[in-house]
Structures are given as C-alpha cells and as structure tokens.
C-alpha cells in the first residue's frame, strides 16, 4: 500500500468535511485509489474513509458478507477495535449487506442521548449514485434543495427517518460508491422522495 498516511488522509478528511457541510454534494476521492490497489473486500473509498475517521479511541463495526479480511485490515491500519453495530461509533455497511441487515443497523445503532447527542454513531454505506434525481434533500448547508439518486435508499430511508425523529438525537451518514465518490447526509438533512 502506497497511500500517504498523512497527506492523503488529511485530504480525505477535508473532502468528507466539505460533503458533511454541503449535504447531497458529490465529491471524488478517486485520486487515492492507486495507493490501495491491493484492497481486499469492500470499496476503496470505504477503506479511505476508515483511515480518515478511525483511531484507537473509537470502535467500528462491519455489516455485510465476507468482511473478516476487511475488518482485520482496518483494525491493523487504524488501531481501532471492531465491535457490534450497537456499540460502535462507526458502522460500515458493505454492498453485500442484505436489506434486513441494513434495517437492523438503524434499529440497533447508537443515536446519542439528550444530554450527550454527540455519543451517536456514523454509518458509512456502500451504494451507487445516478442522475435520476429520485430524492430531494433539504436542511442546513443546502441553499434550497439538492436532488440525488441513491441505489438502495428504499432499504433504509424510513429507518433513517425513525432514528432521526428526535433531534438532536440521530445518525449521520457517509455514502460511497465504486467510483470513490462520496456524499454525506447529516442527521439534520430531511430526505423526501421526488414528487411526493
């Protein structure tokens, strides 16, 4: 692996921060892909995001099929400990995850407390984006609305709404695709189906 663990991770963090402050904006992390060409399971953007967000102070969970090698690699490079989805600060959902597994994550995940809303988890979800504009996003960081199409949104959009119904409780989401694009959807963002 030839990814620059200082320079590239700083750039990755700035990319995620930009997307978190501008929900629905698609940014690319493809420039880091060459450094992780031997990446085992999951998408390169998933591993870049893990390197960016994890350290020995936080824990992570993996949801999907055949994630052992990925989990071992993330733990080795970040010193983070792998936990169950209900205990982890960061939950990575791979493209191999079933709808049932995704629904279970939203039902089990930490959403914080009224005293400590920051003690919630962030979901990193592998998906696909398209130009069909099926979803409308509204909220802080969006001038009027943002439109987006997310391949597996029907699997989790209602569960996300339930998890985020009592602000400031809720979960933030980072979405990544095979082209190493990233989109962030904070808990403050409202998602509606276009035309509804």
Description:
Strand 4 (about 90-95), helix 4 and strand 5 form a beta-alpha-beta unit. The protein has helices at about 5-20, 45-55, 70-80, 100-110, 155-165, and strands spanning about 25-30, 60-65, 80, 90-95, 120-125, 130-140, 145-150, 170-175, 180-185, 190-195. It has a seven-stranded mixed sheet, sandwiched between helices. It is about 30% helix and about 25% strand. The chain is α/β, with parallel strands linked by helices and about 200 residues long. The longest helix is centred in the first third of the chain and has 15 residues, at about 5-20. The mean pLDDT is about 90. It contains five helices and ten strands, in the order H-E-H-E-H-E-E-H-E-E-E-H-E-E-E. Helix 1 packs across helix 2 and helix 4 (about 100-110) packs parallel to helix 5. It is globular and about 45 Å long. It has one domain (about 5-130, about 155-190): Rossmann fold.
Give me a quick take on this structure:
This protein is α/β, with parallel strands linked by helices and 196 residues long.
Discrete helix count: 5
Q: Could you please say which CATH topology applies here?
A: Rossmann fold
Overall spatial form = globular
Task: Determine the strand fraction and express it as a percent band.
Answer: 15-25%
Oligomer: single chain
Strand sequence of the main sheet, in spatial order? 1-9-8-5-4-2-3
Q: Mean of residue pLDDT? A: 90
**Major sheet, described briefly?**
7 strands, mixed
CATH evolutionary superfamily: Bacterial phosphonate metabolism protein PhnH
If you compute it from the alpha carbons, what radius of gyration comes out, rounded to the nearest whole angstrom? 16 Å
Bin the helical content: 25-40%
Number of strands: 10
Structural class computed from helices and strand pairing: alpha/beta
Total of domains: 1
* H/E topology pattern: HEHEHEEHEEEHEEE
